[in-house]
Amino acid sequence: MPKQVTSMSRLTNQIERMFRAINHDFFDDELEMPTITVVPTARAYAHVSVEPIWECGKDVKRRELNISSSYLSRPLELICASLLHESCHLLNLQHNVADTSRSGNTYHNKRFKETAEAHGLICTRTEKYGWSDTSSVLSDRLLDWVLLHDEFREIELCRNVPGLSALPTGNRAAEGGTPVSAPRPNHNHRYVCPRCGNIARSGKAINLICGDCMVKMVEG
């Protein structure tokens, strides 16, 4: 059984491993490695820095990718969606693609949408932040990827901030990051009908019968 992540050093290492896996599987290792941080940002699930703000040895600078410690209790697929969201910003930054604008780079434009949807995300438009919502609807590609990486289901460390759950949705993101939205259900269990191929998802292990074929669906 894998050890639970209950220390900050192991937590940061775990998120670095998650980033490297996302970089490999969704970006063909094209992304430059950022400096991963885990600090509380109440108004965003995550963010990246526009400029390389970390000096990592002689002539080596890195951008920062932060995952907010305030929201680590979210389901794993939503944490991965935030990492993937920020990875799309990193890709655009590397190629000098302006994917955000307005009020501190919080409005996600169609260039962000194009990059995100080409790399496993589904974007939903919001009035205030543009194509920023990548948590309301998760793609089968991302959900299947999470199911294949059960080794990341170890995070047990979360910073408890009183009253944080009462924050309104659509709060300002940091440097084009992932804005806070309403919590979404966990859909980590995937079921397939062995006869017709219908797919269903659930937040817990349950017995399902395909309504079309009237046969038991199998998890996988």
Mean pLDDT: 81
What is the CA–CA distance across the termini?
20 Å
Strand content: 15-25%
Helix content: 25-40%
Spans of at least 5 consecutive residues with low confidence:
162-175
Q: Give the beta-strand count.
A: 13
What is the count of helical runs?
5
Secondary structural class: alpha+beta
Oligomeric grouping of the chains: single chain
Shape descriptor: globular
Work out the radius of gyration: 18 Å
Strand order of the largest sheet: 1-5-2-10
Largest sheet: 4 strands, mixed
String of helices and strands: HEEEEEHEHEHEEHEEEE
In summary, what is this structure?
The protein is of the alpha+beta class and 220 residues long. The chain has helices at residues 8-27, 76-94, 102-106, 110-117, 140-148; strands at residues 35-37, 44-48, 54-55, 61-62, 64-67, 100-101, 107-108, 124-126, 130-133, 178-179, 189-192, 199-202, 218-219.
